[in-house]
Design a protein that fits this description.
alpha/beta; Spore Coat Polysaccharide Biosynthesis Protein SpsA, Chain A; 10 helices
């Protein structure tokens, strides 16, 4: 099969007939073998009933329904598991992503040999309250991830080699960072394509400002797990040793200063009366705790079932 189109959806009953018809028309015109994987994330507006009607006339539609709303990341992860196509295309169900972009995305995966191609909605129809935070979010993500060539990490329209979606896990609200997750998994050939952003035709946006706080925390989580997931002692141990040494050096300096003052009959203060004593004490305690945290994390990591699981490209 050439293409799997994975569409996570939540309360998008009005847009589904037009979306599936549009995707099918593009596939027919380009003679692709395809499937449309619709993942209903616990819709309450009749979306699942509409999917049932659409499947009667379009056998290429496959569907999965969650019992409740789990979020876009869960829907994508399940869709990736179900996808059978050589190239997997993801898009949102609100018709703001154009299926006409599929042939070019497919070509860049198959002919240009990209692992992942992410859409960039250079011209957007969103309000300023959404576009400005998005630009800030993308700027921070570029700097932290090292993926300099992407302008829009959270664009729903993306294309993947099948090997990519079968070797990454999307959870929580990590769908914003799929390019980062793919990079940490060893898929480094990541490209970008300018795509059309269409005004919302039906329903209402699921956008909320809380996603930026959660998104930043998820980025820190991905950065830490990707870099130190298999060697947590390297992070916690280093921070702990540095903190402990800083406290130890301050303590030795205070003791030496007091002994010097006593030897030269100069006035001095008790060590416990000096603010530096408490700073040193906190640094030593914090350093010990960080080191022990690293030690415990290392034990947990070594007990993990996938402690020796590594991404293998091919075997001969």
């Amino acid at each position: 099969m050439d293409i799997s189109v994975v569409v996570p959806l939540y309360n998008e009953v009005e847009s589904l007939p037009e979306l599936t018809s549009w995707i099918s028309r593009v596939m027919f015109e380009n003679k692709y073998s395809y499937e449309i994987v619709l993942v209903d994330d616990g819709s309450t507006d009749g979306s699942w009933e509409m999917i049932g009607k659409l499947r009667e006339n379009n056998p290429s539609i496959r569907a999965i329904k969650f019992r409740r709303n789990y979020g876009k990341s869960a829907a994508l992860n399940v869709g990736f598991e179900a996808a059978k196509g050589d190239v997997v295309i993801t898009m949102d169900a609100d018709l703001q992503d154009s299926p006409d972009e599929i042939p070019q995305l497919y070509r860049r995966i198959k002919e240009d040999k990209y692992d992942l191609v992410s859409g960039w909605k250079a011209k957007r129809y969103d309000p300023l309250t959404k576009t400005l935070p998005t630009k800030l979010f993308n700027s921070v993500t570029r700097k932290m991830s090292g993926i300099k060539n992407l302008h829009d990490f959270n664009c729903g329209l993306k294309a993947y080699r099948q090997n990519v979606v079968k070797n990454i896990e999307v959870y929580g609200e990590m769908h914003r960072y799929i390019p980062v997750i793919a990079k940490w998994a060893g898929f480094t050939k990541i490209g970008e394509q300018i795509v059309e952003h269409r005004p919302r035709k039906y329903g209402k946006t699921k956008f909320g400002m809380s996603r930026f706080i959660n998104g930043f925390l998820d980025l820190l989580s991905i950065f830490f797990v990707g870099k130190f997931g298999k060697r947590p002692m390297h992070f916690f141990g280093t921070m702990g040793v540095l903190s402990f040494l800083a406290g130890l050096v301050i303590t030795i300096w205070m003791i030496a200063d007091k002994l010097y003052s006593i030897a030269h009959k100069q006035p001095y203060r008790d060590i416990t009366e000096q603010p530096l004593f408490y700073i040193a004490l906190v640094a030593i305690i914090l350093g010990s705790q960080l080191f022990l945290t690293g030690f415990v994390a290392e034990l947990v990591s070594r007990s993990s079932h996938d402690r020796n699981h590594y991404q293998v490209e091919e075997r001969i």
